[in-house]
């Protein structure tokens, strides 16, 4: 009933959003003499904000058209190189740097970005991809919305996530034999990426990444626990199974699949900083009233992405809550993949970089750094820790701090261990 109630509410809000958008356009139309009335302008702006806040958003496009490298502009070539039911592998190359007339020209390092499967699409990392494209040929995991995956495709859990990462790394290495790819995990995928690196190192696989960068990842959530960690610890796993898991309705291809709905995740994130989100929309209204369309559109662009959410499979969500946040399986040495204990001390080739934000309210300080302590089989010269001063959770992979402070650290580390 939870999902059906949401669909009913969404239908009502879609109608209200459409009505508000049409009314705003009518009131602000230069051909409407009433539009020159100050009150009409304010009402039009208020309706515009309401229409934007209540609209439904689908999967955004990456839309990266070109990148500047050393003062020159290069077109970006985006393609899907591996297609799987629960997620594709996308590749981004620069025409004239990585390829020309369809042929490879330069042999830049290959960087696989493991995007979170946490309610948002991989496009949330658009800024991460753009910045990494300046130095690398970039691949990214483009996870599917679970409600669009038919039931006959089976389940998807943490084991499958690791299998997907392994297959993607093997694909990249097969295209560049003898040259290990690099991997970057943003937030939640730090755990499966860390486990993948351990498994591939243990098997002495040529696809084991040369470097693994973990950014704001919950490796050991007992370190500086946040409100997100506390909520996961305060309730038994059965509470999550009975309270936040829903069944996909019949109007979607994944009808009947049990999922953790994206709208639940969005509600949780919004409620954590409700005051800030309300103030952002009030500021948007003031910008529109003052005629500052650029500032208003910047806020709109952010929320277009932020409110674009997708469902994740129930088994993946519940296993993540139980293994990562409740049982602390990685630091306790009990994390298993396909029944086998994952031995992180097997990491002896992959250099590790842990990055944390000083003001991260989702993954507290020390949670990602724990990965360095646990990898006792790796020489200290292959480990590095960086704390981004003043950065929150999103600031370590997006925005000016990411571009100017964090990304150079990643580039330096990768160059050192390539």
Task: Write a structural description.
This protein has 418 residues and is α/β, with parallel strands linked by helices. The chain is 42% helix and 17% strand. The protein has 14 helices and 16 strands. It has helices at residues 2-28, 38-54, 126-132, 158-175, 190-202, 227-234, 237-243, 262-272, 274-289, 293-306, 314-326, 329-332, 370-374, 400-416; strands spanning 66-69, 72-82, 87-94, 99-100, 103-104, 110-114, 137-143, 182-186, 211-215, 246-247, 258-260, 312-313, 336-337, 340-341, 351-357, 383-388. The strands form four sheets. The chain has a nine-stranded mixed β-sheet, sandwiched between helices. A three-stranded antiparallel β-sheet has the order 10-11-12. A two-stranded antiparallel ribbon has the order 4-5. The longest helix has 27 residues, at 2-28. The radius of gyration is 23 Å and the shape is globular.
Characteristics of this structure?
418 residues, nine-stranded mixed sheet, globular
């Amino acid at each position: 009933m939870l999902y059906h109630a949401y669909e009913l509410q969404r239908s009502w809000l879609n109608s209200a959003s459409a009505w508000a958008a049409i009314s705003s356009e009518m009131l602000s139309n230069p051909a409407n003499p009433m539009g020159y009335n100050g009150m009409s302008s304010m009402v039009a702006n208020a309706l515009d904000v309401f229409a934007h806040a209540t609209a439904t958003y689908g999967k955004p496009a990456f839309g990266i058209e070109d990148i500047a490298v050393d003062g020159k502009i290069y077109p970006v070539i985006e393609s899907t190189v591996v297609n799987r039911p629960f997620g594709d592998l996308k590749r981004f190359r620069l025409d004239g740097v990585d390829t020309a007339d369809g042929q490879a020209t330069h042999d830049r390092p290959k960087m696989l970005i493991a995007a979170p499967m946490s309610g948002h699409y991989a496009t949330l990392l658009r800024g991460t991809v753009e910045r990494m494209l300046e130095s690398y040929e970039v691949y990214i995991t483009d996870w599917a919305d679970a409600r669009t995956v038919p039931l006959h495709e089976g389940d998807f859990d943490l084991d499958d996530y690791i299998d997907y990462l392994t297959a993607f790394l093997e694909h990249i290495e097969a295209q560049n034999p003898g040259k290990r790819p690099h991997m970057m995990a943003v937030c939640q995928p730090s755990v499966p990426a860390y486990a993948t690196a351990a498994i591939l190192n243990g098997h002495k696989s040529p696809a084991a990444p040369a470097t693994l960068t973990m950014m704001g990842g919950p490796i050991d959530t007992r370190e500086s626990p946040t409100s997100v960690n506390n909520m996961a610890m305060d309730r038994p796993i059965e509470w999550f199974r009975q309270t936040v898991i829903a069944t996909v309705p019949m109007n979607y291809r994944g009808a009947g699949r049990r999922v953790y709905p994206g709208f639940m995740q969005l509600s949780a994130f919004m409620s954590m900083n409700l005051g800030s989100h309300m103030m952002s929309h009030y500021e948007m209204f003031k910008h529109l009233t003052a005629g500052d369309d650029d500032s208003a559109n910047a806020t709109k662009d952010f929320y277009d992405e932020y409110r674009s959410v997708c469902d994740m499979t129930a088994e993946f969500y519940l296993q993540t809550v139980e293994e990562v946040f409740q049982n602390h399986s990685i630091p306790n040495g009990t994390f298993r993949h396909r029944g086998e204990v994952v031995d992180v001390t097997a990491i002896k080739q992959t250099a590790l970089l842990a990055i944390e934000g000083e003001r991260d309210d989702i993954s507290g300080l020390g949670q990602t750094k724990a990965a360095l302590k646990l990898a006792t089989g790796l020489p200290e010269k292959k480990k590095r820790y960086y704390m981004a001063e003043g950065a929150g959770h999103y600031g370590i992979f997006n925005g000016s701090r990411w571009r100017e402070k964090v990304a150079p650290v990643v580039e330096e580390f990768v160059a050192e261990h390539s």
